Amino acid sequence: MALSHAILVCLTERPMSGYDLAKFFDTSIGFFWKATHPQIYRELKKLGEQGHVTSIEEIQSGKPNRIAYSITQSGKDALKEWSREPVALPLIKDDLLVRLQAIEYVDKDALREQVAARLEAHREQLGQYYHIRDVRFSDGQPPAEDLGKLMGLELGIQYEQGWIAWCESVLQRLEKQKS
Amino acid sequence: MALSHAILVCLTERPMSGYDLAKFFDTSIGFFWKATHPQIYRELKKLGEQGHVTSIEEIQSGKPNRIAYSITQSGKDALKEWSREPVALPLIKDDLLVRLQAIEYVDKDALREQVAARLEAHREQLGQYYHIRDVRFSDGQPPAEDLGKLMGLELGIQYEQGWIAWCESVLQRLEKQKS
DNA sequence: CACTCATATGTGCATTGACACATATATGCA
DNA sequence: TGCATATATGTGTCAATGCACATATGAGTG
Fold it and tell me: CA B27 → C1' C4, Å?
């Protein structure tokens, strides 16, 4: 049940509503953990019952009211406890790689297109990472509390670069096979 | 529901029992798709009902009987159809990266140990990939039907190398922060 | 003789997760 | 007026997943 902890991690940055969190999970922390908004709202409810977060409803005019959640001391304690548990290797589940294993049984034209699409997606993601690096970490040494975020970003950049190089080499080899 | 397709992919190589498949998912194809044995047995049952696989029980002496599954023409057709569907980006879910985002709230000694353990795991995995490459792809150009497997292996190697480099650099920076 | 390991196939249950659907307000656009 | 979009919070449901448990045979080890 790491979604609850991912939410707590987000709330260490600033108080957020479910809507904020959903957007956050589409961008920043979402690179390492995905979640949809129904999941997030349900988890926030549980976290409230456990006392790990508190909420205040903010009356807004022109927009629906929002419920802002903040992490409590109990939530911070829970984070520290969780951080001592061993982490599992992230499990890879990738249709594309599975298809490659049976290359003689798949539609090769479709495969080429899928690799090309994947290449595009990784290039776009890399662009996003570069953008974040430039606006947030451009000026020399980051403060200690941001070091982890920078390291995460570096992993993301390396990960995307690796995929891009691989996709390009695969495309070349698939083109050769074309005729 | 890609597990069924992953199983079909395995069965293109040779007929296998549920037990064989479970072992296969722990080694070769399991690098790109994980599955436990209860999942596999249940999925095999469904695939049989759909006519994508056939089974014969092999009477064994000294060991329990095994049920060997083979892919049918209908199964091969299903594979080809599936191969035309667009593939999703593999979603990353990594506790370690999430913890890094809240570096000021986690136990840093534990974090160091976790990164070190992760480094070890990636080194081991890389060793496995090298081993497979050496025994299976050492002699020049592989046959066309193995090209996809080789490319998958290359991705795995690159992926692990990237993680290893990243873990090493993170460990260095965490050590500096120690005092 | 008990214990463990490898082979082999399953059931049952709880959690997680994805996805469609529901509801409400206000703005901008055609 | 109708439609899309952004904001904002949820419910209901089903599939996927993980994990403990159950069962059976025979070989090897202490």
Answer: 24
| Segments in A90-146 forming alpha helices (H) | 95-101, 108-136
Q: What pLDDT digit, counting tens, does each position of A10-45 carry? A: 999 999 999 999 999 998 899 999 999 999 999 999
Inspect the interface and report whether the beta carbons of B144 and A118 lie closer than 8 Å: no
CA of A64 to C1' of C20 (A): 23
Six-digit token string for A58: 């903010």
Four-CA torsion B152, B156, B162, B163, nearest 10 degrees: 150
DSSP letter at A141 equals S
Cα A98–chain centre separation: 23
The secondary structure of residue A25, as a DSSP letter, is: T
Residues of chain B contacting residue A102, judged by C-beta atoms under 8 Å apart: 8-9, 12, 79, 148
pTM for the model stands at: 0.94
Which of the two residues, B18 and B65, has the higher pLDDT score?
B18
- Catalogue the E-assigned strands of A33-159: 53-58, 66-71
pLDDT tens-digit series, residues A30-85 = 999 999 999 999 999 999 999 999 999 988 777 788 999 999 999 999 999 999 99
